[in-house]
Design goal:
- It is built from 16 helices and 20 strands.
- By secondary structure, it is of the alpha/beta class.
- The chain has one domain: FAD/NAD(P)-binding domain (3-Layer(bba) Sandwich), CATH 3.50.50.
- Strands 1, 2, 3, 9, 10, 11, 12, 19 and 20 form a 9-stranded mixed sheet that branches. The chain has a 9-stranded mixed sheet with strand order 6-7-5-14-15-16-13-17-18, with helices on both faces. A two-stranded antiparallel sheet has the order 4-8.
- β19 and β20 form a beta hairpin.
- α3 (about 90-110) crosses α16 (about 485-500).
- The longest helix has 22 residues, at about 90-110.
- It is globular and about 70 Å long.
- Residues about 10-15 have low confidence and may be disordered.
Length: about 500
C-alpha cells in the first residue's frame, strides 16, 4: 500500500535514510521552536528537518512576509470582541498575552544558554498603540481600555483623546489631522517588534550544531504509516530530482499552507472536514529617514466592514537586520497558492468529499469577505496611499513602495451548527496515537509558537511529558501556571524577560 501511494505521488524507490526519531517538515519558526524544545528535553533523539526551498524561513517566517508584531493583544482589537450589549470581554486578549509571555520566557532562557544571539538581532522594544476615529469606535476603545487596565498583564496601558498626548506618542498620526474629528488612542510602551526570520535561522543554527540534519531543497511528497506505528516520509530532492524516504517515529508538519495537503496525504481521519482559504497580503514600505524617524510604534485600528481580522490596518515600525523602516497595511490579495512559493493548483487540489460542503458553506456565509477582496484587488498604488492617509494625513505617494508579503491559509472546517466556518488563528491537528501532528492557520501563530508547541508536546508525548516538566519549567518558568491571576508573578516575569531581552520600555 505504501509503495502504491508513493508511486501515485511520482516517487520511485531510491535513497533510503536511516530511521530517525523525529522529522520536522518545513523550515519556519514552528519547526524551529519544536526542534529546540525537543533537543533540550531529549538530547539523544535523532532529528531531521526537511525544507523544500533553498533556504530557511522563506515563507511566513520571513521578516517581509509578516508585520513582525509580537502579538500580545496589546493593540489588536479583534482579540477583544464587543458583545451585543456593548461590553468587552478581555478573556481572549489575556489568553494571547499569556501565550506571548511564554515565548518571551523561552527566548530569554535560550539567550541565557547561549542558543540565541544578542536580543537586538531578533527583538526590539516598540510601543503598541490602537488608534480609532469616530464616536462609535472611540466609545468602544474606551470600554476596551476599562476592561484591560486592571489586568496584570496589561499594566501600563494608557488611554487618551487628547491630540497633544497622541502627538507625543505618534506624531505622524496627528499632523494635519482634521479639526473636530473624534479620535482616541491607547498605548502600551512594553510592545515589541520581532524579526521571526532571524529568530528562526538562529534556532536552526543551534540545532545543526547539536547534530540535527537540516536539509534544504527537499520536498516532502507523501507519507505512509508503517506496521510498527512509525511513518515513512517520501521526499524528492529539488536538485537532480532524486527521490528517497526517511522513517520516523514522530512527524511534525510545519509547512504553512501546505500542511493541509500533506496531512491529507497521510490519510489520518482527523484531517477530514478541513480546508483552507488562501489570503495574500501587500504592504506599503518606506525607508525615508525623515518619515521613519517620526514614528516609533505599531499602531493598529479597526478592520473595514467585511474584512478578515488579519487585514486590520496598521502603521508599524519595522527593524530588520538593524535597519528601521515603516510598513502600512496589509492590503489583501488573492492567489490560489497556499504558499508564496506554492502551486496554482493548491486551492483545487485540497477538495475532498469530506470538506466540499464545509467550504461551500463558508463561501455562502461570507459574501462580505468576497466583496472586500474584490475591492482590495481593484486598488491601485494611489488608492492604497489614500488608505494610509487615513492614518497619516501627510503621506506622499512617492515615499512609499509596495511590497508583496506572504500567504495566509485561513482554516475552514466543519461546524455542527453552521455546517462550515472560516476560522482565524491557529489549530494543531493530531492523529489519535500522537505520531503525527500539523499546524494549520495563521496569526498570531509565530508569536505564540512556544505555547502551541507546549500543547503539542502534551498531546503527542503523554507518556513523557511528566518527566519533561522540570526542564520545561526551567525554560518557561510560568509553565502550567497562568500569570494574569497572580499580579506579583506577572510583574516579575515581565520585568525579568524585559531585562533579558533588552526591551525595557
Amino acid at each position: 500500500m505504501g509503495r502504491d501511494r508513493a508511486r501515485r505521488a511520482g516517487i520511485d524507490w531510491c535513497i533510503v535514510s536511516e530511521k530517525v526519531d523525529v522529522v520536522l517538515i518545513g523550515g519556519g519558526i514552528m519547526s524551529a521552536t519544536l526542534g529546540v524544545l525537543l533537543k533540550q528535553l531529549q538530547p539523544d533523539w535523532k532529528i531531521e528537518v526537511h525544507e523544500r526551498l533553498s533556504d530557511l524561513a522563506q515563507e511566513s517566517s520571513n521578516p517581509w512576509n509578516n508585520a513582525g508584531t509580537g502579538h500580545a493583544a496589546l493593540c489588536e482589537l479583534n482579540y477583544t470582541p464587543e458583545a451585543s450589549d456593548g461590553s468587552v470581554d478581555p478573556g481572549k486578549a489575556i489568553t494571547i498575552n499569556e501565550q506571548f509571555q511564554q515565548s518571551r520566557q523561552l527566548w530569554a532562557s535560550l539567550i541565557e544558554r547561549g542558543i540565541l544571539d544578542e536580543p537586538s538581532t531578533f527583538i526590539n522594544a516598540t510601543p503598541h498603540m490602537t488608534f480609532v476615529r469616530g464616536e462609535k469606535d472611540v466609545a468602544f476603545l474606551k470600554r476596551r481600555y476599562e476592561a484591560l487596565k486592571d489586568q496584570p498583564l496589561f499594566a501600563g496601558i494608557e488611554y487618551s483623546e487628547d491630540s497633544r498626548v497622541i502627538n507625543q506618542w505618534a506624531p505622524l498620526l496627528m499632523q494635519e489631522r482634521r479639526k473636530g474629528e473624534p479620535f482616541a488612542a491607547t498605548r502600551v510602551p512594553a510592545g515589541t517588534d520581532v524579526d521571526f526570520g532571524s529568530l528562526t535561522r538562529q534556532l536552526f543554527s543551534h540545532l545543526q550544531e547539536q547534530g540535527v540534519e537540516v536539509i534544504t531543497d527537499r520536498e516532502v511528497r507523501t507519507m505512509t504509516r508503517q506496521k510498527d506505528g512509525s511513518w515513512r516520509v517520501f521526499w524528492r530532492n529539488r536538485l537532480g530530482r532524486t527521490p528517497g524516504h526517511t522513517d520516523a517515529r514522530f512527524v511534525f508538519v510545519g509547512a504553512g499552507g501546505w500542511a493541509l495537503k500533506l496531512l491529507q496525504k497521510s490519510g489520518i481521519p482527523e484531517i477530514k472536514g478541513y480546508g483552507v482559504f488562501p489570503i495574500g497580503g501587500q504592504f506599503l514600505k518606506t525607508t525615508n529617514p525623515a518619515v521613519v524617524s517620526q514614528h516609533k510604534a505599531k499602531v493598529y485600528s479597526q478592520a473595514s466592514v467585511g474584512a478578515p481580522p488579519m487585514s486590520v490596518p496598521h502603521l508599524d515600525t519595522r527593524v530588520v537586520d538593524g535597519e528601521a523602516s515603516l510598513l502600512f497595511g496589509p492590503f489583501a490579495t488573492f492567489s490560489p497558492k497556499f504558499l508564496k512559493n506554492g502551486r496554482i493548483t493548491d486551492i483545487v487540489a485540497q477538495v475532498r468529499p469530506h470538506n466540499l460542503l464545509p467550504m461551500l458553506k463558508v463561501a455562502v456565509d461570507n459574501p462580505s469577505l468576497i466583496s472586500y477582496l474584490v475591492g482590495e484587488l481593484l486598488k491601485n498604488h494611489r488608492k492604497k496611499v489614500d488608505s494610509l492617509r487615513v492614518f497619516m494625513p501627510t503621506a506622499k505617494d512617492e515615499d512609499w513602495e509596495l511590497i508583496q508579503a506572504g500567504q495566509r491559509a485561513q482554516v475552514m472546517k466543519k461546524d455542527p451548527k453552521k455546517g462550515g466556518v472560516l476560522q482565524f488563528g491557529t489549530e494543531v491537528v493530531t492523529s489519535a496515537d500522537g505520531s503525527i501532528a500539523g499546524l494549520l492557520g495563521a496569526s498570531p501563530g509565530a508569536s505564540t509558537a512556544a505555547s502551541i508547541m507546549l500543547g503539542l508536546l502534551k498531546t503527542c508525548f503523554p507518556d513523557r511529558i511528566a518527566g519533561w516538566e522540570p526542564e520545561l519549567k526551567k525554560l518557561i518558568p510560568s509553565y502550567g501556571q497562568p500569570l494574569n491571576p497572580r499580579a506579583d508573578a506577572a510583574r516579575a516575569s515581565i520585568a525579568a524577560t524585559a531585562e533579558a531581552l533588552s526591551i525595557n520600555p
